[in-house]
Amino acid sequence: MIDDVDALVAGLDRQGYLAEEGLGTALFLAVRLRQPILLEGEPGVGKTAAAGALASTLDTPLIRLQCYEGLSAAEALYEWNYPRQLLGIRLAEARGETPREADLFAPEYLLRRPLLAAIEHPGPRPAVLLIDEIDRADDEFEAFLFELLAEGAVTIPELGTRRAAVPPIVVLTSNRTRDLHDALLRRCLYHWIGYPDQARVAAIIARRVPGAGEPLVTGVAGAVSRLRGLDLVKPPGVAEAISWANALQLLGLPLNAGSAELTLGAVLKYREDEEAARALLADIAG
Length: 286
Known about the structure:
This protein is of the alpha/beta class. Helix content is 48%, strand content 13%. The protein contains 14 helices and 9 strands. The strands form 3 sheets. The chain has a 5-stranded parallel β-sheet with strand order 2-5-8-1-9. A two-stranded antiparallel ribbon has the order 3-4. The chain has a two-stranded antiparallel sheet with strand order 6-7. The termini are far apart.
């Protein structure tokens, strides 16, 4: 699908995602080796966006599983459409028939959740399966997940084993709120996405905020870089820089001390961080 790292980086660039060479190499290996890749980094550095840009570059579906505490295997794999099954029973009874169990647990009553949808994706290109924020899920789900990824199949008691004809390209993301199991890490390629430097942030904003002038682009990139130098609860990432630039452009405001004060909620997410940043933002125009 992709000849080399440069071709993949160029493809991501066409989708508006500026990937440095290390990330481009890691994603290329994940595609060509068909090995899951774990992307770690602080919130807002572009981990989820990387998976979306990869799917667009490969012209294939992105199937996303958002992880959270208490996520069960059933919620991630499949469920039965009980209201539709009940309707089927009532229709059969209205015809004087007794529905068979095999009729009620047929594929048309199956609700495919992200993991099963990725396994059953028909191709010809593999889907990109994004397992987002795996560190938020419980240990039990993580253990189930790496077994599923190793087998590339799932057994549905009523229907038998479903095996991937075109195994998905699996991208896992983590904000590192907890350590992941070694068994999962062994199965994955790994890449840490750090905060990009000021020049790359400016380039990203210019791509993601069409029409933003050069003073706004460079001003926001510089201000975000300075904010990250403070002792903040949540330092702003690329996502916050884009949001800030969008807000200022929508309001038709240049970046200065007054507009920074008005739009602070676009870039900082904690009251303590706002208080810590006020002195810096007071002379931001300079």
